[in-house]
Specification:
Blueprint: E1 2-5, H1 12-24, E2 29-31, H2 38-46, E3 53-54, E4 66-70, E5 91-96, E6 109-112, H3 118-128, H4 135-149, H5 159-170, H6 188-200, E7 202-206, E8 209-218, H7 225-236, E9 240-247, E10 250-257, H8 264-268, E11 274-276, E12 279-284, H9 289-303, H10 310-313, H11 327-337, E13 341-346, E14 349-355, H12 356-364, E15 377-378, H13 389-399, E16 403-408, E17 411-417, H14 418-429, E18 444-446, H15 448-454, H16 457-472, E19 476-480, H17 482-489, E20 496-501, H18 504-509, E21 517-521, E22 526-530, E23 536-541, E24 543-546, E25 555-558, H19 561-566, E26 576-578, E27 586-588, H20 593-599, E28 601-602, H21 609-612, H22 615-627, E29 630-631, H23 633-644, H24 653-664, H25 669-678, H26 681-685, H27 693-708, H28 722-729, H29 734-743, H30 748-759, H31 761-768, H32 776-783, H33 788-797, H34 801-812, H35 823-828, H36 835-849, H37 856-866
Parallel strand pairs: 1-2, 1-4, 2-3, 4-5, 5-6, 8-9, 20-23, 28-29
Antiparallel strand pairs: 7-8, 9-10, 10-12, 11-12, 13-14, 14-15, 16-17, 18-27, 19-20, 19-26, 21-22, 22-23, 24-25, 26-27
Length: 873
């Protein structure tokens, strides 16, 4: 895939050069390397559909084979695309007009000339290649040249820039439209004011909004201060920009704001100012610009609505303990769930907070039987869910505390930690040129467009229906796990697992009135909804699990989505997407699952993951092979330790069997079996079992037969895993095979299938082999007494091609053959009712198998000939 990109903060010269490059190369994906200028974004919105320009997160970096960079020559100006420069096999072409830099982009081809605009360079190439330019394209190219040359007035403008504009005008460029999008050049005095405002500016986060404030004293009055402040806001990519400038005796205050942040006209109105919600000004007869800005800064604290509130990021519901709980019991709770502190609450009312340090000291002094209330911190600092992240940050720093209980109407509704605050503040804490690179790093992202493109209509409709019901009931519902992983990977997955923050059992039961069949499991707070269409959805309460000892079944308690996701196996399975109407399509990714998907790695969420549940080792191998991912280095080490330490051997036979069945239902289970062997898993699980090349060969054949002959093979839904199990034990001695079967607690029927597969293989080859022709009736007679799973194993395991061909002939064709005549026909023909009719029909089937009869008439004739009248009535 060829990608055409430019520098961060793309302007019209950048956009025009990208479009020209796509024409020059006969196509390519246009992608900004970061943010684009406001006027560029507005232009693209107005011309939606004419040019599609992607953002970095919409591009699959691993698929890029060719990179074309325009209007930039330094790696640090092209954002995420810079990392491709180190990737072998990438072809890089560069077109630019800027002066030399220390760190030029290493390229296979470059064209860099000192022109007023990069667009000029690209237009010249198009003209020399005789590539046609449409009027719309000519207008865009002219905009690019006009913007970077200050309407052909800057000193860097060359005659070639002017000639390019002349050529574009002749091709239909509409020069009258350029002023609508491009602010033309400043004179030297205006440039000095603009530069000074930028130089004096300071940035501040106020209630989550980025604010830029600046002051200036200038000897003379200059028109257009509002334009300078507008550019100041755009320069810093701020939400609000305010400047106080003294010109002569007066002080002029100009404010600009983004629509969703604040109304600056209302903000300045009490001081005598006015204007529009996003553009307002104020003129003061006298005053000190610095003092005025400081006063306005204090006012902004109250005027700006928080963009991200504590309610958006807090953990809720929150785990709390009763004031009367014993120190030793609170200590167990804290250890069990890994908390460093717990709120103390009585009927939802916050009474205090107890930390791990407090409990450690109390325990050391032998006070385990004392109540928590005796040692808790009373009246802890708390905040409202409506408070901004910035304010919570300030409180934590000033009070030197690591967590804040969240109260609403004096009721404990959540808790927020330093980690939560850091996550929320991260994107805005970056310099403006790096901020676009952080878009994928926060834990939420809207993926509704991906859902619309990749999900089947019935899936979208069902999720929307579930989300509406949850919202009506005041609940939050999310689609979670493997479904989200496969959605982002573009893989089909129709296993719908819903997690509900709130009472999932009530949610499940609410569907009964809609004609759905429901089943609930009170202990685990889970259940299933089966819709009238037959579609099934699994629903669970957001919960936290605790394992009392390795490989134990978990204890369950209700909790937040964050903790529900944390209990899962791998980061790529620990993502959720909101299906509520108000937050539809919001991806929740606390643990970097999407980044790991892009890196194609499997990573556990914590270091005791395999200790808590060793089946995650087997699931990890299954995912690794199915998705063709790599196991992350630390995860691999933990996995090996779990295997060598023998934890997997503690798994119950039932759980182990379940995991093996899932492996054998995969498309290519032999890959997973081979990987398990490489890691030493089979030896640990089943001493003496060491599947080798023969096992892998048999499994590959079974998979091939299942894939190619699936329509013709008999239904083996309940036993389809047994041919693979037979292959798994095929290279073991008999005692080892029986030990495996005992360990897995297989049924008597399943045991007989595996044993017969192994023990009777030689007999089958003897009976079905040989160079001579074998009558189909004989093949049928032998194999009709054999379970299809056994026969399938034999077909895969034998190295005698005639045996394999005859078994597959039976499984796909012969087993289905029956005579056209039935018992009633025999009676009509005069034969006595009784065992004789069955004998005749069996003989007739053999005749049809051997090709002696084909039509009904031939069957009647054959019966009358071979069973004379003495056998009739």
């Amino acid at each position: 895939m060829r990608v055409i990109t430019t520098h961060i903060g793309a302007d019209f010269d950048s956009l025009a050069s990208m479009v020209a490059a796509s024409k020059l190369y006969g196509g390519g994906v246009l992608c900004f390397s970061g943010s684009a200028g406001r006027n560029v974004r507005e232009f693209l919105m107005k011309n939606a559909g004419r040019w599609e320009v992607l953002t970095p997160r919409q591009v699959e970096f691993d698929s890029i084979t060719s990179l074309v960079v325009v209007d930039a020559r330094s790696p640090n100006r092209i954002g995420q695309f810079a990392k491709l420069l180190e990737k072998p096999g990438i072809t890089v072409h560069v077109y630019d007009h800027h002066p030399p830099v220390i760190d030029d982009i290493p390229s296979d081809f470059s064209l860099i000339e000192p022109l007023g605009a990069a667009t000029t360079l690209m237009v010249e190439r198009l003209l020399s290649e005789k590539i046609s330019i449409s009027p719309h394209e000519a207008t865009l190219f002219a905009m690019g040249i006009y913007e970077d040359t200050g309407a052909l007035t800057f000193g860097s403008t060359t005659s070639r820039d002017i000639q390019a504009v002349i050529a574009l005008k002749e091709m239909g460029a509409d020069l009258t439209s350029i002023p609508f999008y491009i602010e033309l050049s400043l004179d030297p005095v205006e440039r000095r004011i603009q530069d000074k405002l930028i130089e004096n500016a300071r940035e501040k986060l106020i209630n989550g909004a980025r604010v830029v404030l600046s002051t200036l004293a200038f000897e003379q009055y200059v028109e257009g201060l509002s334009l300078f402040v507008h550019r100041l806001r755009d320069y810093f990519e701020a939400d609000v920009a305010i400047a106080a400038v003294k010109m002569g005796k007066h002080v002029y205050v100009v404010a600009r704001s983004r629509e969703e942040v604040m109304d600056v006209a209302r903000f300045l109105a009490p001081l005598g100012g006015g204007g529009h919600p996003q553009a307002a000004s104020l003129t003061l007869a006298e005053g000190n610009p610095e003092k005025i800005i400081n006063d306005l800064e204090k006012m902004l604290e109250r005027a700006i609505e928080p963009s991200v509130t504590i309610g958006d990021i807090m953990t809720s519901p929150v785990m709390a303990v009763d004031p009367l709980i014993l120190i030793e019991d609170a200590y167990k709770v804290m250890i069990r769930y890994g908390h460093a502190a717990l709120p103390v609450a009585d009927n939802g009312k916050l009474k205090g907070i107890i930390t791990r340090k407090d409990l450690d000291k109390a325990t050391i002094h032998g006070l385990g039987k004392a109540p928590v209330k005796d040692f808790m911190t009373e009246r802890p600092v708390s905040i409202s869910p409506a408070v901004s992240v910035a304010e919570a940050h300030r409180i934590m720093v000033m009070r030197n505390i690591g967590r804040l209980p969240v109260l609403e109407n004096d009721v404990l509704v959540g808790i927020v930690t330093r980690t939560d605050i850091l996550r929320a503040l991260y994107p805005r804490s970056l310099p403006s040129e790096k901020r676009p690179l952080a878009e994928e790093m926060p834990w939420t992202e809207n993926v509704s467009d991906i859902m619309a493109r990749r999900l089947k209509p019935w899936v979208l409709g069902l999720l929307a229906k579930l989300g509406r019901r949850a919202e009506e009931m005041g609940l939050k519902a999310f689609i979670v796990g493997g479904f989200v992983r496969d959605l982002l990977l573009g893989r089909e997955n129709e296993d719908l697992d819903i997690v509900v923050e709130g009472d999932a059992l009530e949610f499940i039961r609410s569907w009964e009135k809609d004609g759905c069949r429901v089943a609930t499991h009170k202990k685990f707070r889970t259940g299933t909804i089966v819709f009238p269409s037959g579609k099934k959805v699994d629903v669970a309460t957001a919960r936290r699990e605790f394992y009392e000892y390795p490989v134990a079944q978990p204890s369950v308690s209700s909790d937040s989505l964050k903790h529900d996701l944390y209990r899962r196996d791998y980061t790529v399975n620990a993502m959720a997407v909101s299906i509520n109407r108000s937050t539809w399509g919001t991806l929740v990714d606390y643990f970097g699952g999407r980044q790991d998907l892009k890196k194609k790695v499997l990573r556990v969420l914590h270091n005791l993951s395999f200790v808590e549940d060793p089946t995650r080792v087997i699931r990890g191998i299954r995912l690794e092979q199915r998705l063709e991912f790599d196991i992350e280095e630390n995860t691999y080490r933990l996995m090996i330790n779990c295997i060598k330490g023998g934890l997997v051997s503690l798994l119950s036979g039932v759980r182990l069997r379940s995991e093996l069945e899932l492996i054998f239902k995969e498309g290519s289970p032999y890959k997973m079996v081979k990987r398990c062997a490489q890691l030493g898993l089979w030896r640990t699980l089943f001493p003496g079992l060491n599947p080798g090349k023969e096992t892998i060969k048999i499994m590959r054949r079974i998979s091939f037969f299942r894939r190619r002959l699936s329509r013709d093979l008999p239904d083996m839904t309940e036993t389809e895993w047994l041919p693979y199990l037979s292959a798994l034990v095929s290279e073991s001695h008999r005692e080892g095979m029986l030990s495996v079967l005992d360990r897995l607690h297989v049924s008597d029927k399943e045991r007989s299938i595996v044993v017969e597969s192994i023990d009777e293989m030689g007999s089958a080859e003897h009976i079905l082999g040989g160079r001579g022709e074998k009558p189909n009736s004989r093949i049928y007679e032998y194999l009709s007494k054999i379970h299809p799973a056994v026969a399938l194993y034999w077909a895969a395991a034998t190295n005698r091609w005639r045996v394999r061909r005859r078994i597959l002939l039976y499984l796909t064709r012969l087993r289905k053959i029956e005579p056209m005549l039935i018992g009633r026909d025999m009676l009509d023909m005069g034969y006595k009712e009784g065992p004789m009719i069955g004998y005749i029909l069996k003989a007739l089937r053999n005749a049809r198998l051997d090709g002696l009869v084909e039509t009904r008439e031939e069957e009647i004739e054959w019966v009358l000939k071979n069973f004379p009248k003495k056998d009739r009535k």
